[in-house]
Amino acid sequence: MKLPNKNTSLEWIKKDILHLLKLDESLINLNKDNIYKLFKRHIIKNKILENNYLHLKNNFIKFIPETFINTVSKWILEDIKIGSNKEKDLHIMFIDISGFTEISEYLKPEKALQLLNIYFDWIVEISNSNGWYIDKFLWDGIMLVFDEKNSDNVLKTAIEIIELVNKINISNFKDKINIWIGINSWKAILWTIWSKNRMDITIIGDTVNTASRIENSTREEKEWILFSESTYNLLKEKNLFNIKYIWEKELRWKKKLIKLFWITDK
User: Fold this and answer.
1) Which domain holds residue 258?
2) CB distance 225 to 262 below 8 Å
3) DSSP secondary structure string, 140-200?
4) Which residue, 138, 140, 136, 95, is CA-closest to 117?
5) Which of 23, 34, 176, 223 has a Cα-to-Cα distance from 252 of 20 to 30 A?
6) Does residue 100 sit in the same domain as residue 145?
7) Are residues 33 and 158 in the same domain?
């Protein structure tokens, strides 16, 4: 907000200062210099509040990424209530670091966390650069969300993550791990949950549950990346990937059969 020039007419200041600062009509008899000082003090106060807000925001988005805030949009920022929800077409990716439990048995807790953070830092960097955001960390796993319409970037991200882990494993002969990735795409619900005094924003629905079950199936199929038919159907350039169809499979705790696909480097 720009300060008025001291040569500006008093009538202009009287008209706008009362509106901007919501001042009482009794202040209309203040002289020009006093109104100018009051207005300037108000600007300084707003600047301090703005700086405090930006500082808080920069720290807060480390817990709730700005990409997530942009996705949930104003529907939840204007009036946060338990049960507020919005349905969106989303890609859900679950990543699990296999073997980390065994590694953590012989490492001190701080060393185990340091190792885990190395993987997470790189995985998150790849994910963010491709438009994903982190919904939550699940100890040695991650739930990622992506809201572009096609799936090309989805598989590209999954492949980059696997390639990254392979590179880290090559340079680290002692603590080798495997990454398992399950992906599903369809409608999901952004939802506010928990109590009136402690709330969380998460994504729920069958699409999320199915993605988690697909990730669990990677060990059975011995494939690093598995994804559903709905993700496959949203690919625009299928020829960019060497995709193989497995078969219809009944996922754990789900009755409906689902077609699974995987990517091969052969």
Assistant:
1) 66-263
2) yes
3) TEEEEEE--SSSHHHHHHHHHHHHHHHHHHHH-SSS--EEEEEEEEEEEEEEEEE-SSSEE
4) 140
5) 176
6) yes
7) no
What amino acid occupies position 159? I
Q: Are residues 39 and 99 in the same domain?
A: no
Enter the DSSP assignment of 88: E
Helices (H) and strands (E) in the chain, counts: 9, 8
- Measured between alpha carbons, how far is 164 from 170 in angstroms, rounded to an integer? 10
Q: Which of 64, 77, 76, 94 lies closest to 191, judged by CA?
A: 76
Kindly give, in sequence order, each residue whose CB lies less than 8 Å from that of residue 130, ignoring residues fewer than 6 positions away: 146, 153, 156, 157, 160
Q: Which residues pair with 257 in a beta bridge?
A: 250
Does a structural domain hold residue 5?
A: no
Cα 145 to Cα 187: distance, rounded to the nearest angstrom? 12
